[in-house]
Amino acid sequence: MIRKRVLAHGEVQGVGFRYHATAQARHLGLVGYCRNRPDGTVELEIEGREASVSRMLRWLETGPRYAVVTALDVSDIAATGASDFQITD
């Protein structure tokens, strides 16, 4: 299992980004979380099989229908063994 921290930049708040990212992550069997940050980005931590994490990263490049993703900052972090994917504050 691998885990990535992702910061999504652009028009990513107020467009259903967290809801759709959560649905996509769960569909791919990933665990972790997503949350809005005060600077207008969305922060995610995604954990799972490498192939599923890669698919999620590709999805995050465009995000849901009304999002405009201008950049993704991705870094490797230690896997936690979390059991679900959730939206946090």
TrEMBL record:
Alphabetical keyword list: Hydrolase
EC number: 3.6.1.7
Name of one Pfam family that matches: Acylphosphatase
Domain Acylphosphatase-like: 3-89
GO molecular function ontology, one term from the record: acylphosphatase activity
Keyword tRNA-binding listed: no
Family designation: Belongs to the acylphosphatase family.
Name assigned to this protein: acylphosphatase
Species, as recorded: Cryobacterium levicorallinum
